[in-house]
Amino acid sequence: MRMRFLAPVVMSVVLLASCGGGSENKTEKKEESAATSETPVDNSMVTPGAAEAAASKGAALIEQKDCKTCHKPDTKLIGPGYKEVAQKYEATDANIDKLADKIIAGGSGNWGEVAMTPHADLAKDDAKEMVKYILSLK
Ligand code: HEC
Q1: Quick one: how many helices (H) and strands (E) in the chain?
Q2: Which residues are in the Cytochrome c domain (predicted)?
Q3: What is the model's pTM?
């Protein structure tokens, strides 16, 4: 009679203990995973994420403009392929600036006699985004 009365009490103590232990472990794990996932999130906001965002902005601008009537990523069309351009120029600030001006002003001479049409309505910053994207296509 006494044991029967005690059994559920003992059981619930055991259960409580194991539950308590379990939830403690869970919180520890949560903290751990929060700590480990924080670092990559921070990194992606500083470098790779930012680079990707910039590249996709340039890609989107190129899509909106007439560039693809004369340029393709891999092969020469009327103008050089973007990968050829990326191989010819390093992605330095000076080159990005120079190529952005060239897209806006148009002209020939670096790849042959055929001239690129001017894009006078293009903002310099947008042209730079496009060049950054092109030069990322090595
Ligand atoms: C009418 C055809 C045409 C269009 C449209 C055109 N391009 Fe070009 N692009 C050319 C030609 C031709 C060249 C080679 C010029 C040369 O020999 O200096 C060139 C060269 C380039 C170069 C390399 C410049 C250099 O001096 O090496 C870049 C970068 C470029 N184009 C980007 C663009 C972008 C971005 C657009 C869209 C805004 C665009 N092009 C639109 C024909 C075109």
Answers
A1: 5, 0
A2: 53-138
A3: 0.71
